[in-house]
Amino acid sequence: MPNASRSVYINTNPYPSEPASSSPSSKKSHAIIAVFIVVLLFLGGIFFLNRTLITDYLKGSSYVPSSDMEEIRDNLGLTAEGMRIFNATRPRLDSRDEFNFDCDSSDPEIAVYGCYHSDQIYVYDIDNPELAGFRESTTAHELLHAVWARLSGIEKNRLVPFLESVYSSNQSLFDEALKTYPDSERLDELYVRSATQVKTLPTELETHFSEIFTDQDKIVDYYDSYIAPFKELHEKIESLSKELESKKQIIDQKTEEYESKSNSFNKEVEEFNKCADTEGCFTSRTAFNSRRNELLDTAATLDNLYSELGKLIDDYNVKIDEYNSNILHNNTLQNMINSNAKPGDIE
Known about the structure:
Distance between the termini: 108 Å
Number of strands: 3
Structural class: mainly alpha
Number of helices: 12
Helix content: 55-70%
Strand content: under 5%
Order of helices and strands: HHHHEHEEHHHHHHH
């Protein structure tokens, strides 16, 4: 069989008269690469500008709240943005030991209700009808910490004068709590407490918080609801304390009066008896009887004073029991929201 033939072209000129040109397919490849790079840069820019938004959606996409937390979420009335941050921070209700571990809480003198760290929210699980609103208020509080963490420096600085205005108008509400935080966390706490504890806010803050909650007043209502028993108990305890002090002063005065009159009466009785034993001391039977009747009247007056004093003391003791009962109830509620309280302190 004859060999297959083939033709071969050999260019003997090492220097072509015209420069070589790229093939059409090569030009097309370069164009595709250039477009691809532009697209990558564009997408990278979008991701950079919206990295928090994208990250939140990714983190929240797999979050499935417990039935109780789902109810809390619905009760908060979150906007789309509020819902995004809520899901991204994956809030959870913790039992005592879980909460103390998750929130690194160990000081029995400091009641920690919730915490936000590593971009996750933990809420101490308290289900007591008397403290209705506790879980909603605490969850909203921690959610706002997450919102503050996502604000840019420019946005935070824009809100500062309005937050300081709220502080100036509500120092008595904020000071006790704020003094427990370092200066570096003051604005964060002021921001959170302004939204959860104050209804009358500057328009700028109302507009800002409306981006998270559909009804910010409702969030404050949750705080007012669970804090109401503590306020009521505090007022009762203060009122009873003043009442007890007033009653004690009266009892002390009456006791002093009784003791003084009783001492005088005893001396008069002693003198009467001595006179009765001394012949001629009383000039007549009439004088004896008259003096004796005077002493009997004084004795009756002392008996009435003693009886009145006894009633005052009994009433004072009833108020003492009421005072102690309110103190005990307050301490029980305080311990109930303190994950580090001894179990025996909680009824």
